[in-house]
Write a structure and sequence with these properties.
The protein has helices at residues 3-21, 28-55, 61-84, 90-112, 123-141, 151-184; strands at residues 144-145, 149-150. The protein has 185 residues and is mainly alpha-helical. β1 and β2 (149-150) form a beta hairpin. α1 runs antiparallel to α2 (28-55) and α2 (28-55) runs antiparallel to α5 (123-141). The chain is globular and about 55 Å long.
Length: 185
């Protein structure tokens, strides 16, 4: 156990807190704000744990495995809550969650055959992640920020963009893996 892995575990522990906030008896605006803060804090730990792991020389195979799992669980839990709150269309959530499962399985299989670098993270995948990590807290907040930013509207546009980037990145990774998939069949 090291500090980067501890932060990853804390991110995973934040997931039930994020979900619980929307079931606790509190005013909607308060739940929205608390949920947003929990999500943003958890998302920040994603950047911090990676930075610390590299900076402190504490990278590990376990950390490399756990970090993306924590990220995907956080995003998927938030999307399910946003569907429940009628702030995200179920189709968008299915596209994003389905891609995460598909690409995770693909990367696992590619690692087993020694070709993981063929499906290494690409800039489209990074843009997808950025769009998601900005859209989700905006949608969790759902109100007007600083008296001018319509979080719900901006969040809907960004989550739609994230869905498009999700499909694009999935097609990119599948295209990169196609020679291996074709030979395996």
């Amino acid at each position: 156990m090291n500090l980067p892995n501890l932060l990853t575990w804390l991110r995973m522990l934040a997931i039930p807190l994020l979900v619980a906030v929307f079931y606790l008896p509190m005013p909607g605006a308060t739940a929205n704000l608390v949920g947003t803060v929990i999500f943003v804090a958890a998302a920040i730990t994603d950047w911090v744990d990676g930075w610390l792991a590299r900076r402190l020389g504490q990278t590990s195979a376990f950390g490399a495995f756990l970090d993306p799992v924590a990220d995907k669980l956080l995003v998927c839990a938030a999307l399910v809550m946003l569907v429940e709150l009628n702030r995200v269309d179920a189709l968008i959530a299915v596209i994003i969650v389905g891609r995460e499962i598909t690409i995770s399985a693909l990367r696992e299989w590619m690692a087993q055959i020694g070709a993981r670098s063929s499906v290494a993270v690409h800039s489209v995948g990074k843009l997808k992640t950025i769009a998601q990590l900005v859209a989700i807290p905006l949608l969790l907040h759902g109100g007007v920020l600083f008296g001018v930013i319509d979080c719900a509207l901006l969040g809907r546009w960004l989550i739609a963009l994230a869905a498009v980037l999700t499909v694009w990145s999935m097609l990119y990774y599948l295209q990169r893996a196609w020679p291996y998939l074709r030979n395996a069949a």
